[in-house]
Amino acid sequence: ANGMTAVLSRVSKFDFKGSWTGEDVRVLMHVKKKKYAGEIEFNGKTYKAIGNAHGELLRGNFRSGDNNFPFQLSKVDGGTVGFQSGTFTAALNSDTARPKPKSKPVKAVSNDKPAKAEPIKKTAKVEIKISDKIRKLEQKIINNHLIYPK
User: Fold this and answer.
1) Of 4, 40, 76, 109, which is most buried by a Cβ count within 10 Å?
2) What is the reported pTM?
3) How many CB atoms lie within 10 A of CB 37?
């Protein structure tokens, strides 16, 4: 032992796949053979781009004519990605739709089957109770009118 201690740390990996948009620039990335490939749109022009991710940083090149230009994407707090090429920098936000939470499937309703009706007995009992109450009220009104004529 020579007295030296090695400290190993794991760099968190960020997924740069998807579409990212900011002021004057849009980046579209997908993974191709363990490398990122896609396009960079800048000032109305589209450039092919390739790069490699290292933790929370993606470094690559985009092509304009016969020339390659370096760029980098870096993860910023809150899920924003920073874009830099030369002296140009921009904050990019994800345009990519994220998976929605799973919901329970909705059972299809068929119009072929009639809706299930309430049993007639329940309905008849309710109607009888209401009719009985109405008759009793009518009887009270008649009795009150006979007892207290106008």
Assistant:
1) 40
2) 0.56
3) 15
